[in-house]
Amino acid sequence: MTRSPATPTLAQGENARPGRAARSGLVGYGYWWWTVPALVLTGTVIYLATASGAFYAFTNWTGIGPYNFVGVSNFVKVFQTPQLLGALVNTVLLAVGFVVFTNLIGLGFALALNRTLKTRYLLRTLIFLPVVLSPVAVSFIWKFIFAYNGPLNQILGDVGLGSLRHNWLAVPKLALGCVLVVMVWQSIGFVSVVYLAGLATVPAELEEAAAIDGAGMWRRFRRITLPLIQPSLAIATTLTLIQGLRVFDQVMALTGGGPDNATQTLATEIYQQTFTYQEFGLGAAMALLLTVFILVFTVAQLALTRDRT
Amino acid sequence: MFRYTKRTLILEIVTILAALVLLAPFWILIAGAFKTGNQVLTTSSFAPPTHPTLSNFTTLLSPSGSQSGNIWQGLLSSVLITAGSIIALVALGSAAAYVLARSTRAWSTRAYYIFLGAIVLPTQLGTLPLYIGARHLGLVGNFWGMIVVYTGFLLPLAVFLYAGFYRNLPRDYEEAASIDGASRFKVFARVVFPLMSPATGSVAILAGLIVWNDFFTALIFLNGSRWQTLPVVMYNFVGSLVSQWNLIFAVVIISMVPILVFYVFTQKKFIQAYAGGLKG
What are the chain B neighbours of A106 within 8 Å (beta carbons)? Predict the structure, then answer.
């Protein structure tokens, strides 16, 4: 991977040969070296950095001074420390919940806002609003909503469900659900925009014809709409899965990983192990796990959603 | 068949209600930001402020406030870092993608795949060694360092977006310009690049939003420095304000205003950039 910045050299060799003008006619389209700054930057900041991160995952480096190779002991530690294993489980739970709920609710809004509604353009703009905001800022609003004196408990009290009142973010089992709610809430608008783009390609005549032939709403959705929006489904589920696995901001702002580490995720543990406890090797090992997770899940997800067409 | 029937009306009402529930947190935020600390605790969160007050905002933003320096500096830092990253991304990304999209040679396909692969690779793992590297070079807590990191992270996306647009651009313009004697650089800068403004818009919106809202990288590289961006400033600030919700709401609103103003003016383009840009 560290070889990627070398590609321009290769380019130079090939491009220096005569016959370039013949290939592209009389017109030159820029020079090969215009790609060099971008390639060098991507090569270092992404490939070289990732490769050396993967290297440190097998060491006991603290970030300063000498280090030793420790084999896979960082990874063993992740799976043997309940707190770290818990972070891994939480990450998967949040990611799966995030994919399921954002896509169901987002698709619901997209179907409703696709045609005929008079307010559809206004509503599309409004439900997209949370998407553009900083997750940290948004999480602070929700921190108030979940507070003991906050609006959620206030509503519960008003409708006579006072017994369900909780200090939501302080109960380990509920706190993870709260993080999920905030994640889902902020991404519904994004997912529905992706589905709306897909729905725009479904010809109305096709649905009309099916309706005349007596197909009910569910059948039309299942047999016509869903197969035609398969590409949107693949994009939306893959992107939400990646986003879900990387969850960091909402946890930091809402709970800081607490109570009692109940909401720690891979990303928050990477941050804390590396920068709070100076366990650079361990942090890198968790980051490598996260990277492998994302790559494996993404490939599996794409294979699954593409095959059904 | 898609006429407006009674059922459509019911669907419309249900959808509007669902959207209102979805947007309720914004109402809570706005109502709370204009109440005093006492009113936030004593009145219903959904009740509008009886005596709207700007005191939360003046406390935060007036020069005498203890935090106003941090907030203004955070705003400046966010604007400079976002603008710098967008400029670098547009300059490097448009030029690189142009050559890659127009060249028919094998190396350009390979180079293009290098960028595509980098889009899939998550940045968390690379961030840790980058931090060490930047510490060596004295680029931690420095806004130039931050621009370099963000530009590197987002260049693959920029190249990908630009390349898609270039492929749909007929070569006639370039041929005409170069027959008229324009140099390759002039053809690109005066003819091609101006035609690419939709691509530039998409890159600026997507990358700008990602940089503006980024927390993970900014927290690692800038925490405690004078170039902390708004999310980091807000995070530290709220940590120091235990349950002073009126002030928290005000700082949240301050951090949202720039992006909301931007969104209101460009919302159609914004949604298009998202729907089109993230397909890939």
Answer: none
Q: What is the dihedral of CA B50, B54, B59, B60, to 10 degrees?
A: 110
Are both B215 and B95 inside the same structural domain?
Answer: yes
* The pLDDT value given to residue A27: 63
- pTM recorded for the entire structure: 0.87
CA B43 – CA B52 distance, rounded (Å): 13
Distance CA B76, CA B88 (A): 18
Q: Is residue B148 part of a domain?
A: yes
* Residue B204 domain flag: yes
Same domain, B110 and B34: no
Position B229 in a domain: yes
Q: What percent of chain A has pLDDT over 70?
A: 90
Q: Which domain holds residue B126?
A: 68-277
Q: Is the peptide bond preceding residue A135 cis, with omega within 30 degrees of 0? A: no
Residues paired with A69 in a beta bridge: A59
From CA A58, how far away is CA A67, in angstroms rounded? 10
Interface contact B170, partner A, CB < 8 A: no
Number of Cβ pairs closer than 8 Å across A and B? 295
The CATH number of A81-307, from 3.10.100.10, 3.20.20.70, 1.10.3720.10, 1.10.540.10, is: 1.10.3720.10
User: Residue B33 half-sphere exposure, CB side, CA atoms within 13 Å?
Assistant: 20
Positive or negative, the Cα torsion across A265, A270, A276, A277?
Answer: positive
Inside any domain, residue B58: no
Closest by Cβ to A38, choosing from B155, B216, B274: B155
* CB contact B149 to A (< 8 Å): yes
List A residues 155-174 in contact with B (Cβ-Cβ < 8 A).
Answer: none
Query: Does B124 lie in the same domain as B12?
Result: no
pLDDT tens-digit profile of A86-98?
Answer: 999 999 999 999 9
Q: Are A81 and A226 in contact (CB under 8 A)?
A: no
Asked if A231 and A291 touch (Cβ cutoff 8 Å), the reply is no
What are the pLDDT tens digits along chain B (280 aa)? Answer: 567 788 888 889 999 999 999 999 999 999 888 888 888 878 888 888 888 888 888 888 877 766 777 888 999 999 999 999 999 999 999 999 999 998 888 888 899 999 988 988 888 899 999 998 888 888 888 889 999 999 999 999 999 999 989 988 888 888 888 888 888 888 899 889 999 888 898 899 889 999 999 999 999 999 888 899 999 999 998 888 777 888 889 989 998 888 888 888 877 777 777 776 554 3
Q: B130 vs A45: CB contact, 8 Å cut-off? A: yes
Q: What angle do CA A42, A44, A47 make, to 5 degrees?
A: 75
Closest CA to A28 of B194, B166, B174: B174
B260 in the same domain as B136: yes
Question: CA B124 → CA A82, A198, A206, A259, A269, distances in Å?
Answer: 22, 31, 45, 24, 12
